[in-house]
Amino acid sequence: MAPRRVGAGPRGLRAPPVLLLLLLLLLGPWPAAGHGGKYSREKNEPGGEFRMEKLNQLWEKAQRLQLPPVELSELHADLKIQERDEFSWKKLKAEGLDEDGEKEAKLIRNLNVILAKYGLDGRKDARAVNGNSLGDGVEQDGLGDPRLEKLWHKAKTSGKFSRDELDKLWREFQHHKEKVREYNVLLETLSRTEEIQENAISPEDVSHVQAEVLGTRHAELQDRLRGISQGFDRLRKVSHQGYDGDAEFEEPRVIDLWDLARSANFTEKELESFREELKHFEVKIEKHNHYQKQLEISHQKLKHVERFGDHEHVSRNKERYAVLEEKTKELGYKVKKHLQDLSSRVSRARHNEL
C-alpha cells in the first residue's frame, strides 16, 4: 500500500505537530532517496528530461558540450533505453532476482559505452562520427584504423560508386568504427571487473555463479569480435567490388542482424518471419535518417537566421526546429528499442543452438 499523504485534510485543516509525528511513526519507514523507491527523488525529479538524476546530469553535460543536434537526438534515445532498463532492473532486484549481479554489471557496461560514444567520459578522442551523409567535414575525424582508411580511399577513388552509394558505404564504415569502439569499452570494463575480483578474493573463493557470469561476458566479447571480423571482411569485399544490385538490405545494422539470423537456430518459417520484420525495421531506420538530415538542415538554417534574421523569422525557425527535434528523438527511441528487441531475439536463437 502506498504511503498516505499527511496534512492534506478537507479544506486545508492541519493536524497538530505531535499528531503528525505519531502518524508518521505509524505509517512506517519511507523509501530512502536515491534507492529507486516509488516516491524517491530519483523517480520524481520535476522538470528534468529524464526521471533519473544521473541521466539528467549526463544530458545537461552533453548540451554544455554543444554536441551536434543529430548526436544529441541519438544520445537522448540511448539514455531513454538506459533509463528503461535501469528501472526494469530495480524491479527485478526488489523481487530478489539478479542475485549474481550480472544484470547490474551489464547496465554499468552499457552506460560506459554511452559515455565513450558521445565523449562524456572526459576523453578527447572518444566521440564517434555519427554523420548520415557526406557533407562538408564529415571525414575530418578519420576512421581510427589505417586498414579502414586505406579501404575507404580505394573505394572513393575507384569510380565504382555513385554519390548515394558512397554515402551508404560511409555509414557502413562508421557503423564498423562504432562496433570496434563498443568492443574496446566492454573489454576494458571486463578487465577492470576481473582485476577487482582478483584483488578482493582468492581464486578458490570464486563461486560457480561468478565463474558463469565471467564466462557469459567473455562469450559476449567473442560474439562482438566475430561480428567485427565479419564486418571488416564485408567492407573489404564491397570496397573492391562495389555493391551488389540484388543485396537483401542496405542499412548496416539490418545487414548485421540478417547475417546473425542466418547463422542462428531459426526454423525456415521463423527466418522468413524475421526477414519480413527486418524489412519493416529498415523502413523505420530510413525514416529516422530522413528526420536526422532535416534536423541538421534546420539547425544550420536557424543559426543563420539568428545571425541575420528578424525576430519573426527566428521565432518561426525555432518552432520548426523544436518540432523536428522532438520527432527525431521519438523515432530515435523507437529505432533503438526495436534494434534491442531484434538483437535479443537473435542472441537467444544463437545461444539455444550451443
Automatic annotation (TrEMBL):
It is found in: Cell surface; Endoplasmic reticulum-Golgi intermediate compartment lumen; Endosome lumen; Golgi apparatus lumen. One of its GO terms (molecular function) is very-low-density lipoprotein particle receptor binding. It comes from the Eukaryota. Residues 22-125 form the Alpha-2-macroglobulin receptor-associated protein domain. Residues 143-354 form the Alpha-2-macroglobulin RAP C-terminal domain. Residues 1-34 form the signal peptide. Keywords: Coiled coil, Endoplasmic reticulum, Endosome, Glycoprotein, Golgi apparatus, Heparin-binding, Phosphoprotein, Receptor, Signal. GO terms for biological process: negative regulation of receptor internalization; negative regulation of very-low-density lipoprotein particle clearance. CDD domains: RAP_D1, RAP_D2, RAP_D3. Pfam families: Alpha-2-MRAP_C, Alpha-2-MRAP_N. The keyword Endoplasmic reticulum applies. One of its GO terms (cellular component) is cis-Golgi network. The keyword Manganese does not apply. Belongs to the alpha-2-MRAP family. Interacts with the LRP1/alpha-2-macroglobulin receptor heavy and light chains; the interaction is transient and coincides with a reduction of ligand binding by the receptor. Interacts with LRP2/glycoprotein 330. Interacts with LRP1B; binding is followed by internalization and degradation. Interacts with LDLR. Interacts with SORL1. Interacts with LRP1; this interaction is followed by rapid internalization. Molecular chaperone for LDL receptor-related proteins that may regulate their ligand binding activity along the secretory pathway. This is Alpha-2-macroglobulin receptor-associated protein. It comes from Hipposideros armiger. The lineage of its organism: Eukaryota, Metazoa, Chordata, Craniata, Vertebrata.
